[in-house]
Specification:
Blueprint: H1 2-16, E1 21-23, E2 38-39, E3 47-48, E4 57-65, E5 74-83, E6 92-99, E7 102-110, H2 111-114, E8 127-136, E9 144-153, E10 159-169, H3 174-181
Antiparallel strand pairs: 2-3, 3-10, 4-5, 5-8, 6-7, 6-9, 9-10
Length: 183
């Protein structure tokens, strides 16, 4: 569970802030905020949620390779976006991760404390930002459908961004069987 939490934290950081799009990756539960959700441009399952609310971050692209992520493999996340305002100390991210109907994580992270995981630090200046980060997907990720919802806020509770993603990891060995039939 510790490695899964690290994965989730890393992905949330990478994708929730222009310079720190660390989306804690892998998931989608029935309670996920789908109101006004819109796909993030690029090759990923990410959606911007709560789009009727003003947000400081506009993601212009998020690519995952491979997409969908595979357990035991490296995942490369490439993200780009524009911040309307600088992000200062005190910014935080509320993260919910569910596995099917079971909530695995409901935690608040200090955004600035997570930024060193993506070679960044606060303050994050306003303007266009790009980020590429590679993370290892643990072999131990159980098969199933995961949902992640991450809402990042400034110290003054101004919404930086709301992101959600659903990822399904197939049963162990299933992907290899499918690969055999692809040829």
């Amino acid at each position: 569970m510790v490695s899964f939490t690290k994965l989730a934290t890393s992905i949330v950081a990478i994708t929730t802030c222009a310079n720190a799009f660390t989306l804690n990756y892998a998931l989608g539960f029935p309670g996920a905020p789908d109101r006004d959700a819109k796909p993030v441009p690029g090759d990923s399952p990410l959606q911007t949620c709560d789009t009727s609310d003003s947000q400081l971050l506009t993601l212009t692209k998020v690519d995952l390779s491979p997409n969908p992520p595979l357990r035991g493999e490296n995942l490369t996340i490439t993200a780009a976006g524009t911040l309307k305002e600088s992000i200062e100390q005190g910014a935080y991210v509320d993260v919910d991760v569910t596995y099917g109907y079971i909530k695995l994580i409901h935690q608040t992270y200090d955004l600035c404390e997570q930024l060193p995981n993506v070679e960044m630090e606060c303050p994050i200046k306003s303007g266009y930002q790009e980020l590429t980060k590679q993370v290892q997907i643990p072999d131990e990720v159980p098969p199933g459908k995961y949902t992640v919802v991450a809402r990042a806020y400034t110290e003054d509770d101004e919404l930086i961004t709301c992101l959600t993603a659903v990822v399904e990891f197939p049963p162990y060995g299933y992907a290899k069987i499918i690969d055999l039939f692809a040829y």
